[in-house]
Write a structure and sequence with these properties.
The complex is a heterodimer of chains A (about 80) and B (about 260). Chain A is α+β, with helices and mostly antiparallel strands. Chain A has helices at about 30-35, 40-55, 55-70; strands at about 5-10, 15-20, 20-25. Chain A has a single domain (about 5-75), classed as Arc Repressor Mutant, subunit A (Orthogonal Bundle), CATH 1.10.10. In chain B, strand 3 (about 60) and strand 4 form a beta hairpin. Classes of the chains: A alpha+beta (about 80), B alpha+beta (about 260).
């Protein structure tokens, strides 16, 4: 994620701002976005979701991929 | 009223600094909070039904009507007393400014909490630990109003905005290899991020000199005092590798932004 990504959380939303882009996600996405540290794979993040919330891995991977794909067009994350 | 302040009212009256009509008089600031030392000023607030027209030594501009707060200054036993005369109407306007209605309806409400509001923010921040000398009921009612207001969210938001602005600078300067400037910007960003964390946890004051004290007052799990102090004092800063320190600060600021909920 860019070093100067702006992050705001409200009761039910996670707002990410970078340059002129603003992406609004549900607050539950905060956990996922926080895990994007430039080293973890999508599977790693999904596994962290499983370990923390006890959800099914496939379901977690879909959630993580959805969040990543929402951010990629705005250059907030990039796949490497 | 505590014994420490029991002579304040009579002393004010004797010096012609106590208006005949007043809704409340209270002491606040570092001395009232127990953080004072022998060089500290005593901060006294006098709330009047109408704007005070006495001879103030100074005045502080406020974004309210009237647009200034008269300040009386006197010295008692070598301690400087700063006496601020706020009208009840000014306080009412200020409480409205930090209401949830204002916060929810105005996306730029946080701007109200940036530097031009310093004096007003001090007033609000000092209510919870103020020691009443007169008009305790008035003070308790205002304290309750402010406690249930959007002040925390406004102050948090304002600090995050300032932190982001400095982070943006720090990153830009880092990219331009202006490392010294980047370090200074990151230092500023860190301070505002910590202030955001503290505001989120109820410590809305912004006085830099009391930040460590304020930090110790809150319970949170984002940053230990040791981590905070190491960055505040730049303990691990390596002049040979300033970018590393900037990057660490950015990570900490990000953690704080993820943690606080407006």
């Amino acid at each position: 994620m860019p070093m100067d990504l702006r992050i705001r959380r409200t009761k039910d939303k996670l707002l990410l701002m970078y340059g002129e882009s603003l992406v609004e996600l549900s607050d539950s996405a905060a956990f996922i976005v926080r895990e994007f540290d430039g080293r973890r794979t999508l599977s790693d993040v999904a596994q962290r979701l499983v370990d923390t919330y006890g959800i099914d891995f496939d379901e977690a991977l879909v959630d993580v991929t959805d969040v990543a794909e929402a951010l990629v067009p705005h250059a907030m994350v990039e796949f490497v | 009223m505590t014994a420490e302040f029991e002579n304040c009212l009579s002393e004010l009256e004797r010096r012609g600094l106590l208006p005949g009509e007043h809704r409340a008089v209270y002491v606040s600031g570092s001395i009232a909070r127990g953080w004072g030392n022998e060089t500290s000023d005593l901060d006294i607030y006098v709330i009047t039904p109408e704007p005070w027209t006495g001879d103030g030594e100074a005045s502080a501009p406020v974004a309210l009507e009237p647009n200034s707060v008269p300040i009386g200054i006197t010295h008692v036993n070598k301690v400087r007393w700063d006496i601020e005369y706020w009208s009840e109407g000014q306080v009412e306007q200020l409480v409205r400014k930090v209401s949830w209605a204002s916060f929810d309806s105005n996306p730029k409400a946080a701007d109200l909490m940036t530097s031009p509001m310093q004096h007003e923010l001090n007033f609000l921040e000092r209510l919870p630990y103020a020691v009443p000398l007169a008009g305790e009921e008035w003070l308790l009612a205002r304290r309750e109003e402010v406690a249930s207001s959007a002040l925390r969210s406004l102050a948090t938001s304002a600090q995050l905005n300032l932190a982001d602005a400095y982070l943006e600078d720090a990153v830009g300067q880092l990219k331009a290899s202006d490392l010294e400037s980047s370090v200074l910007s990151a230092k500023m960003a860190f301070g505002h991020s910590v202030d955001a964390l503290l505001a989120y946890n109820g410590e809305v004051g912004r006085s830099w000199k009391w930040r460590a004290r304020r930090f110790r007052e809150v319970e949170q799990e984002v940053l230990t005092f040791e981590q905070y102090w190491a960055l505040e004092t730049m303990r691990d800063f390596d002049p040979e590798s300033p970018a590393r320190w900037v990057e660490e600060v950015v990570q900490v600021c990000r953690s704080i932004s993820f943690e606080v909920v407006l």
